[in-house]
Design a protein that fits this description.
369 residues, alpha/beta, D-Maltodextrin-Binding Protein, domain 2, twelve-stranded mixed β-sheet, 40% helix, disordered N terminus
Amino acid sequence: MEKNRFFDRLAEGKLTRRELNRSLAAMGLGMATTFSFSRPASAAAGSDLKSYTWAGYDIPDIMQDYVKKYGSPPTFTLFGGTEEAFQKLQSGFTTDIAHPCVEDIARWSKLKMIKELDTAKLKHWNDIWPELLALPGANMDGKRYILPFDWGNGSLLYRTDKVEPQEMSWNLAWDERYKGKISMYNATPTVSVAGLALGINPYEFSEEEGRKIKDYLMKQRSLVRFYWDAPSDYQQAMASGEILIAYAWNDGLAAMKKQGIPVEYMTPKEGILSWTCGLVHMANATVPDEQVYDLLDAMSSPESGKYLIEQYGYGHCNKKSFEISDQKIVADLGFASPSAVFQHSVFETEVSPEMEQRRNKIFEDVKAG
């Protein structure tokens, strides 16, 4: 994305978190953001706390109770991906709070980068979805290092007025009836889709299984009209009828329904791709624990979740968030029954550098033909 166009879209509010993350990483940008608010003279400054987080999460709306108490949000530094964050932290960068994903926790905790959480100090702990707390990484042999915060899905979105799936399966993306009417994500989740369609673990597979995945993606390549980088690419094409099937996130479902386009967001029989990220207390944090836990409480509150659901289209850790959010938006995002979504989810798991390299090579080879 051209730099000027990037900032134009950022200013217009037309970038999703992932578009922003992807663009920041590609441009090699690091951001530190501070806000100015009035605060009680006796209170610690909110900006004393340093938060290392995803682009788009540097806003007071998702931590309102913290801002009310301390007068300002934390000082933010932004990253475009958790591997980038890990490498920067390993090189000596210090922060009080970070926002990795559950699949990162085994490595981060093994290297003693993060502190175990005292869940008794977390105001909303008992309202967190138990399915998220049971995930590998969220539960490390009974120890808790991460407070799950946000979550979401990746699946197939299709036009119900023009597509007739033979079954609810990822294999719809290989249906030759829709040749030239399919769009897939221009990234390795497309490799995950092929793995699931073939019954192969997409995060840990042998060389032979890798060849099967590659062959299946090569078969799909002739059916795909384009691989999308920004969600707006497939959304515009689906609205016009140029494509009928696309890999999409939850916000794509909401965007299409808002335009009155008849669509369905599939729950594939092989499992829907899901992710969850959260908040960790860094081992070298310098602010008092009370201030850290105040931020954790603010971000895990129902009000924070309401904003995340309604404005970003992501799921939130707190069950009560879904009760107080606009129910039409909740339904349009596919979140009417989060427990049912979790039951059919294949969550991202820790992937070795070698496996990630293999996944990347498969996808690049497929695109190259």
